[in-house]
Design brief:
Number of strands: 0
Distance between the termini: 38 Å
Strand content: under 5%
Largest sheet: none
Number of domains: 1
């Protein structure tokens, strides 16, 4: 994802800043376990490893100046520290939801994660309207095809989960 995101503040940057896939990752990781505590732990570990690998990739992709790779890595991780802090909460929550889904097979948990793809662009758009600006050229809302694609993906997956659930009921 770091290689896709690249250096500039463009559509690739906006794609790299979509957060729903990161949350879904913890859900999927936790879904491998029927014990909720274990799912939460696995969701946390998955989120932290994914972020660490992402920022390691960023340290190679971004032009952060003339210094060693270790300094580039430190700069990358420091720039993303807020996401590591957020992952301390979101990783266990979505990992636990994945474990709940694995334990109960209640579609509501999977549908909730699919709906993240629908509501994330809406929330970002509302936030940017309220705050009086966009997040720069790399903002998701500067690329309507990108955020409409995310919404459509979320609706298709949600619809498929609901239809599949009604067929098995």
């Amino acid at each position: 994802m770091a290689a896709i995101k690249g250096q500039g503040a463009d559509a690739r940057d906006a794609l790299g800043n979509i957060s729903a896939p990161w949350l879904a990752l913890s859900f999927v990781a936790g879904a491998g376990y029927a014990r909720i505590r274990l799912g939460a732990l696995v969701g946390l570990v998955a989120a932290l490893i994914a972020l660490a690998v992402f920022y390691m990739g960023e340290s190679f992709v971004l032009d952060l100046g003339r210094h060693s790779w270790i300094v580039d890595l430190q700069l990358s991780v420091r720039a993303g520290r807020v996401y590591f802090v957020q992952a301390l909460l979101s990783g266990p929550i979505f990992g636990a939801l994945g474990a709940l889904w694995a334990k109960t097979r209640a579609r509501v948990f999977a549908v909730a994660v699919a709906l993240l793809f629908v509501f994330e662009p809406v929330v970002v758009w509302l936030y940017e309207r309220r705050s009086g600006g966009g997040g720069g050229d790399g903002s998701l809302t500067h690329y309507p095809l990108l955020w409409m694609g995310e919404v459509i993906l979320g609706l298709v997956v949600t619809g498929a989960l609901v239809v599949r659930g009604s067929r098995t009921s």
